[in-house]
Amino acid sequence: MYRKFLKSKLHRVRITGKELHYEGSLTLDPELMTAAGLSPFEAVWVYNLANGARFETYVIEGRPGTGEVILNGAAARLGEVEDEVIIVAYAWVPQDKLSDFRVRLVYVEEGNRVREVKEAAVS
Fold first, then answer.
1. For position 24, what pLDDT does the model report?
2. In the CATH scheme, what architecture does the domain 2-121 have?
3. What are the sequence ranges of the domains in the chain?
4. Is 41 left (phi over 0), alpha (psi -120 to 50) or beta?
5. Which residues, in sequence order, are CB contacts of 66 under 8 Å at separation 6+?
6. Banded model confidence at residue 113, pLDDT cuts 50, 70, 90
7. What is the reported pLDDT for 59?
8. CA-to-CA distance for 108 and 23, rounded, in angstroms?
9. Beta strands 84-94 and 2-14: pairing type?
10. What is the pLDDT of residues 21-54, one digit of tens each?
11. CB–CB of 48/79 below 8 Å?
């Protein structure tokens, strides 16, 4: 049996840009992606704390060291620059691998700079 768990969370990052006329996705600073254990083209959910919007998309690498979090395509209509969002990814974990599975939680400071990364066990 597989169970679905939170895999990664970028907590309260701020949107830094919007590109409506782009093919779609979420551009992230690679430093944020690495901290959260996210890969290019990996599916994520974005939860906008300012307006309640919740949507699924995928991540693409932005420019390193910029702190950028850019909504692209249709997602650009679901947030404004400076809105705080939570970005999460989930994983299906085999029941017998739960003891090895860790959730990665990333907390940021001003400019979406990584302040702290925590790992948590699910069992």
1. 74
2. Beta Barrel (2.40)
3. 2-121
4. left
5. 16, 29
6. very high
7. 97
8. 28
9. antiparallel
10. 997 799 999 999 999 999 999 999 999 999 999 9
11. yes
What are the residue numbers of the active site? 25, 58
| Maximal C-alpha separation, the chain | 44
- Phi then psi for 14, rounded to 5 degrees? -105, 140
Amino acid at 41: F
Digit-coded pLDDT (tens) for 62-110? 999 999 999 999 999 999 999 999 999 999 999 999 999 999 999 999 9
Contact criterion met (CB below 8 Å) for 36 and 122:
no
DSSP letters of the chain? -EEEEEEEEEEEEE--EEETTSSSEEEE-HHHHHHHT--TT-EEEEEETTT--EEEEEEEE--TTS--EEEEGGGGGG--TT-EEEEEEEEEEEGGGGGG-EEEEEEEEGGGEEEEEEEEE--
d(CA 13, CA 105): 12
